[in-house]
């Protein structure tokens, strides 16, 4: 392999790695921008407070629970899903609203 070929090969490698890094970072950014809507049906809620123990996004509100933040980020999804899945009367609904 001649000197010029080695330089071409090196440039192609650098460009490929740079593009790969940009693509991976963009994908992570898109994933982290996902948003979710959290709803709690107060009529269905029986006030057991399992959700307030599972996630800080739920707090007591008299004899029921209420949602603190209606729109959450991807990073907050797990605990809100835990609350949703732990609700004995399915009063909580967490749904994706945008990427
Ligand atoms: S877990 Fe369900 S029923 Fe219990 S307080 Fe929360 S929303 Fe209400």
Radius of gyration: 23 Å
The CATH topology assignment of the largest domain is Alpha-Beta Plaits
Shape: rod-shaped
What is the string of helix and strand elements?
HEHEEEHE
End-to-end C-alpha gap = 47 Å
Which class best fits the helix and strand makeup?
A: alpha+beta
Largest sheet: 3 strands, antiparallel
Nutshell version of this structure?
The chain has helices at residues 3-32, 50-54, 77-86; strands at 35-40, 58-61, 64-67, 71-73, 92-98. It is an alpha+beta fold. It folds into two domains: 1-32; 34-98, Alpha-Beta Plaits (2-Layer Sandwich), CATH 3.30.70.
Key terms for this structure?
single chain; 99 residues; alpha+beta; Alpha-Beta Plaits; three-stranded antiparallel sheet; two-stranded antiparallel sheet; 3 helices; 45% helix; binds iron/sulfur cluster
């Amino acid at each position: 392999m001649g000197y010029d070929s080695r330089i071409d090969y090196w440039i192609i490698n650098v460009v490929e790695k740079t593009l790969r890094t940009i693509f991976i970072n963009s994908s992570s950014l898109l994933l982290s921008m996902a948003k979710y809507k959290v709803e709690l049906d107060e009529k269905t809620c029986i006030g057991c407070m399992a959700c307030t123990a599972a996630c800080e996004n739920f707090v007591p509100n008299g004899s029921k629970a209420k949602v603190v933040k209606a729109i959450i980020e991807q990073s907050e999804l797990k605990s809100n899903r835990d609350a949703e899945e732990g609700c004995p009367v399915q009063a909580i609904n967490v749904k994706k609203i945008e990427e």
